[in-house]
Amino acid sequence: MAKMKFWERFKISFRWVASLLVFMGLLEFVNHMTHYALSVNGGIIPREPSRLWAIFSAPFLHFSPEHYLLNSISFAILGGLVVLEDRRIFVKLTLFSCFFAGLAVWCVGRPASVHAGSSLLIFAYFGFVVASGWFAKNWKAFFLAILIGLLYGGMVFQVLPTEGFISWESHLFGMIAGVLFAKILGKRQR
């Protein structure tokens, strides 16, 4: 089977990421119209047994149009890079991150807080792309990791508690999920 050309892969990647962003945009619209009832009811509430299911909905919900728009840029770039490399990896990484990072936030997140936003996935994609440069052991992944590290390296400081309304727990566990997934994938590929 012939390998797809870069522009064909780019178009597919663009469609995947654009579709998810449109889906999240529609959720944001409904959320806004309902005074953010979706985020409040679909976000992760730590250690609340009835909200364990929210680990799969929270990464697609936001708390304001600005929150959605700010996350959309990084989601498009970092998620797009993962899809560009391999769609199956993108799907598996997204599901793994929702489960692993979402569950971690549910277990250790601040009490009486609601966690939602695609930053959990953004940090997972960032962690994956950067860690893949190390674990994949190929020059292409290494140089991409260096480039993304230079462009997005400041994200590392957002895994620390700063402002009370920012889910640094989602950032931290999202990044850990991405690095862990890169390590698992790197071992399988060797």
UniProtKB/TrEMBL annotation:
Compartments, record wording = Membrane
Q: Which UniProt keywords apply?
A: Hydrolase, Membrane, Protease, Transmembrane, Transmembrane helix
| GO process terms (BP) | proteolysis
Q: Know the name of this protein? A: Rhomboid family intramembrane serine protease
E.C. code = 3.4.21.105
**Top-rank taxon, per record:** Bacteria
Q: Does the keyword DNA-binding apply?
A: no
Enzyme class label: hydrolase
Question: Which organism does this record belong to?
Answer: Lentisphaera profundi
Which topology term describes how it sits in the membrane? Multi-pass membrane protein
What GO molecular function terms would the record report? peptidase activity
- The chain positions of domain Peptidase S54 rhomboid read 50-187
Q: What is its main location?
A: membrane
Q: Does the keyword Lipid biosynthesis apply?
A: no
Segments passing through the bilayer: 68-84, 89-108, 114-135, 142-160, 166-186
